[in-house]
Specification:
This protein is mainly beta. About 0% of the residues lie in helices and about 50% in strands. The strands form 5 sheets. The protein has a 4-stranded antiparallel beta sheet with strand order 3-4-5-6, with no helix packed on it. It has a 4-stranded antiparallel beta sheet with strand order 7-8-9-10, with no helix packed on it. It starts with a strand and ends with a strand.
């Protein structure tokens, strides 16, 4: 069971039962062994909750509609544990995106829910995916042939294509990303505790 708390009162708001997976297809049964706090995400309006569950050497993506706690969905099971960050609610929260393959991000319609589209990338995914404030672009942390480098892919959601790939001189393994709210800057964290800022227009590191 996933529990929602009111931190100001220290009381339980809701208890959410885990959705059931088709064990014959997913090879997952029962709740996950654990959940990382960074992989629990509310939709922009607070009406949905998406959570990545860790099941030994597999993981699952799960969705709840909080106005109907029993209305829960096991969206997909993924064959290996990854460090690709949390799922991402897109735009107005009507869609949810998450990396489901080495070079694939799957997008679901939240209200049905069902798969809406797949994004096929030119490089393997290494870290998180984040949406810019306009709701038009995604930035995805990827790997390079050089283990000491990474590649940031910019994906245009309206045109459904890659519009830029930016090579970094540091690895993006398990890297979190964040867009600047008003400028074309992308902040990138690294596993060794450093933070860089990339200018997406000039395609260089400014900090």
């Amino acid at each position: 069971t996933l529990v929602l708390w009111d931190p100001s009162k220290g009381t339980i708001l809701q208890e959410l039962p885990w959705p059931k997976h088709d064990a014959s297809n997913d090879r997952i049964s029962g709740p996950p062994r654990f959940v990382w706090s960074s992989e629990i995400v509310f939709s922009p309006d607070g009406g949905q909750l998406a959570v990545v569950g860790r099941h030994g050497n597999r993981q699952s993506l799960n969705l709840w509609h909080l106005d109907s706690p029993d209305h829960a969905h096991a969206l997909t099971a993924i064959g290996e544990n990854t460090d690709v960050g949390p799922p991402v609610f897109l735009a107005d929260g009507s869609k949810l995106a998450y990396a489901t393959g080495p070079q694939t991000i799957t997008v679901w319609n939240v209200n049905e829910p069902q798969m809406s589209s797949e994004i096929s990338l030119s490089v393997p995914i290494a870290g998180s995916c984040v949406q810019d404030p306009s709701g038009r672009r995604l930035a995805i942390a990827g790997t390079s042939d050089d283990p000491n480098q990474g590649i940031v892919t910019i994906w245009d959601l309206e045109e459904r294509r890659e519009t830029a790939t930016i090579v970094t001189d540091f690895s993006l393994k398990a890297s979190p990303l964040a867009f600047h709210p008003t400028r074309s800057y992308l902040a990138v964290g690294t596993r060794d505790g450093r933070i860089f800022v990339i200018d997406l227009i000039r395609r260089n590191t400014v900090l």
